Amino acid sequence: MRVLGLIVLMLCLGNLSSTAQENVSTDTIYACAEIQTDAERLACFDDAVAQFRAAEDAGEVATISKEELTELNRESFGFSLPSLPKTFLPKFGANNETKLDAISEPVKSTSRLSSGKLRVTLENGQVWDQIDTKDIFVSRKRGVEVAEIKRASLGSFKMKLDGGRSFRVTRAK
C-alpha cells in the first residue's frame, strides 16, 4: 500500500513539476499540509518549495510584505495604478490600511513653468505641477519646507505648501 501511495505521489509531483512554470503559487505549498503521511508531506513540501524558489529566482513570482505595499502606494501616490489594490489587498484582509488619501513630504525645490504655474519637486523624487489658475506665492529667500497632498474629487489632487492655500496639482513624475 505504501509503495502504491509513493508511486501516486511521484506521478502527482511529476505532473506538478511540468506545470510549475505556468502556475506557481503559495497554494501549491499550502496543499502539502493536507497530506497525512509524514514522508509524502515532506516530499510535497520539498518539491513545492523548490518550484517556488526556482520561479522566484527566474523572476516569475515575488513576495511583498504589507510594509512594502504601503511604501509602494506612497511612492506611486498621484499615479493611477488600479490593479494594485485588487491584486494585493485581499491578501491583507481586504481592508484599506495601505490606501493613502494624503501624504506630507519635504520639498526639495519649487520652480515656475513657462505658463507661470508652479512645479514642486519633493525630496522623494516626485514632481507635481499646478493645474489650476490660483496665484501661489513662494518666497525664494525662505523657500518651502513641506508639501501636503490630498486626494480630491474625481481623481484629482490638492496641495498645500507649508500649510498655506490649497491648489490643484497633477503628478508629473
Describe the structure.
With 173 residues, this protein is an alpha+beta fold. It folds into three domains: 2-57, no CATH class; 64-100, no CATH class; 102-171. Helix content is 35%, strand content 21%. It contains five helices and six strands. The chain has a six-stranded antiparallel beta barrel. A hairpin with a 5-residue loop joins strand 1 and strand 2. It starts with a helix and ends with a strand.
- Please tell me what the overall shape is: rod-shaped
Largest sheet strand order: 1-2-3-6-5-4
Q: Which regions contain 5 or more consecutive residues with pLDDT less than 50?
A: 1-21
Radius of gyration, in angstroms, nearest whole number: 25 Å
Instruction: Give the biggest beta sheet.
Output: 6 strands, antiparallel, barrel
- Count of distinct structural domains: 3
Report the structural category: alpha+beta
As a percent range, the share of strand residues is: 15-25%
Residues in helices, as a percent range: 25-40%
Q: So how many helices?
A: 5
Topology (SSEs and partners):
Elements: H1 2-18, H2 26-32, H3 38-57, H4 66-75, H5 83-88, E1 102-112, E2 118-122, E3 127-130, E4 146-151, E5 157-161, E6 166-171
Antiparallel strand pairs: 1-2, 1-4, 2-3, 3-6, 4-5, 5-6
Helix pairs in contact: 1-3, 2-3
